[in-house]
Amino acid sequence: MSEVLVLVDHVDGRLRKVTAELLTIARRLGSPSAVYIGPGVDAVREDLAGHGAEKIYACADPRLQTCLVAAQAELLASLVERIAPVAVLFASGPATKEIAARLAVRTGSGLVTDAVDVAAGTDGIDTTQSVFAGTFIVTSTIEAPTAVVTVKPNSVQIDPVPGQGTVEPVEVQLSEAATAVRITGSQPKATSARPDVTEAEIVVAGGRGTNGDFAAVEALADVLGAAVGASRAAVDAGWYPHSNQIGQTGKTVSPRLYVACGISGAIQHRAGMQTSKTIVAVNTDAEAPIFEYVDLGIVGDLFAVLPPATAAVAKV
Ligand code: FAD
Fold it and tell me: Which stretches are transmembrane (predicted)?
């Protein structure tokens, strides 16, 4: 069976949930192989195997972490040339989209970004994308021998079928161009105990309607174990960091539940959250556009609606 490469998404060896989602998709297409970049593959081997990785290509070359994305693209290109996988899957993100694009150019592969589903078709790899803020569902077939696809987190239900998890160390020859720029330092973001918006099963988001007071939004998020998102209006006002912005110029999320509080539902906001499985909105204006695409709409003041909802959830 043809291999399917999955670039492992991790932070210092801590696997992000989307890696398990990609391995679930990979099993539908062929034999899942994880590509792990960084030290400490032994610590993640069991987890990757538990989610279906038959093989784990491990590259601990420090240049892959200290150089920009071109180095990772070169590693993957060398694996594609050697293994000829049927597909290479990435979690959608700014860096991975660039790696995927470089890889597709280098290997002459077909590229689709931000897929919400991937399946084996009769003529190649079929992908589904939700575009123009969900106005259209686009289905495409990649007929090139290797499909390169970035997949939005939370697009599929994890369905682990354990694999062998055989580790194969990989060396990489990097071009001069790939190592020309080196990262000399990085400043860690202020960490939060809450999950990342792109990973969370539930996102509670606040907009201009909070008037800068996110306490009620955060309290509901905390009882639900949710991430906190924000509209651009809230971010531009300096009420919440850009890393939490949902929308066209922020992050794209597809949680099980999205609760929009004091957010009007502009098309640019919708672009980042409309693939959420269930959408709930709290807004004082019954005519707000967000009510056109919610599953449950509450016309009311978020400062009156959220505290009793938070208290009720806390009792469960
Ligand atoms: P508003 O549109 O002002 O809505 C606030 C809502 O809160 C209103 O509906 C109001 O009725 C309600 N409200 C007020 N008080 C309360 C209360 N006490 N309780 C409950 N409800 C209340 N926006 C994004 O969000 N993400 C993006 O990534 C993004 N990218 C953009 C890119 C471009 C190129 C452009 C042009 C715009 C972009 N925008 C983006 C901006 C977008 O067009 C909207 O301006 C923005 O989403 C509005 O944010 P908001 O809903 O919080 O504010």
Answer: none
Q: Tell me how far the alpha carbon of residue 208 lies from the centroid of ligand 1, in angstroms.
A: 6
Beta-carbon contacts of 312 under 8 Å, excluding residues fewer than 6 positions away, are none
Q: Give the ipTM.
A: 0.99
Record the tokens describing residue 182, joined without a space. Answer: 């080196």
What DSSP assignment string belongs to 158-190?
Answer: --------EEEE------TGGGSSB-----PPP
State whether the beta carbon of 87 lies less than 6 angstroms from ligand 1: no
- Report d(CA 34, CA 88) in Å as an integer: 10
* Cβ of 266 less than 6 Å from ligand 1: yes
Chain mean position to CA 101:
17
Give the pLDDT confidence of 15-71 residue by residue, as tens digits: 999 999 999 999 999 999 999 999 999 999 999 999 999 999 999 999 998 988 999
pLDDT at 189 over 80: no
Residue 54: per-residue pLDDT: 98
* Residue 208 per-residue DSSP state: G
How many residues would you count in the chain? 316
Question: What is the model's pTM?
Answer: 0.80
Task: Assess whether the C-beta atom of 195 lies below 6 angstroms from ligand 1.
Answer: no
